[in-house]
Amino acid sequence: AMEKSYVSMFLLLVAISCALAKDAGKKETKETTAKPKLPQTLSRGWGDQLIWTQTYEEALFRAKHSNKPLMIIHHLDDCPHSQALKKVFAEHKDIQKLAEKFILLNLVYETTDKNLSPDGQYVPRILFIDPSLTVRADITGRYSNRLYAYEPSDISLLYSNMQKAQKLLKTEL
């Protein structure tokens, strides 16, 4: 009789723990689907108040039709250089203000367009494309081996390159 009660007690515990496990499983999936994640804005932290495009194709279309230059930032979430540049870029008031005059795109993946990696697929790299959809190979950072790389210490150079991209518009187009 004692054995029987142990067995039934054991089965009861198994049943309860199974039911609890099932509930816990349900709860997790319900929460992960229902709990609103913080919206992953297209800025990815590069300037939340700026308007960012979602795809390269959309960015090219908008640059062409708005007559604004396109600024493409290639970066990776787990790259310390990208993170450092992003922080300085996002906190730089003048850059954030000037960036409003650009079509903006930041990419955390490589595109198949070879024009966007004229000298290699490194990050972070920033390229400017004018409304005639020409990659501005003449607007570069200070490194001869990575022409479009910028570091946090290059932020004023990046700012002047953004100004240059704006000026080229007025003089060339």
From TrEMBL:
Q: Where is the signal peptide?
A: 1-21
Chief localization class?
endoplasmic reticulum
Q: Which superkingdom does the taxonomy of this entry point to?
A: Eukaryota
GO terms for molecular function, please? Answer: dystroglycan binding
Where located? Endoplasmic reticulum; Secreted
A GO term from the CC aspect: endoplasmic reticulum
Q: In its keyword annotation, does this UniProt entry include Signal? A: yes
Keywords for this entry? Endoplasmic reticulum, Secreted, Signal
| Homology family | Belongs to the AGR family.
- What is the name of the protein in this document? AGR2 protein
| Species for this entry | Steatornis caripensis (Oilbird)
Higher taxonomy: Eukaryota, Metazoa, Chordata, Craniata, Vertebrata
Quote the gene name from the UniProt entry.
Agr2
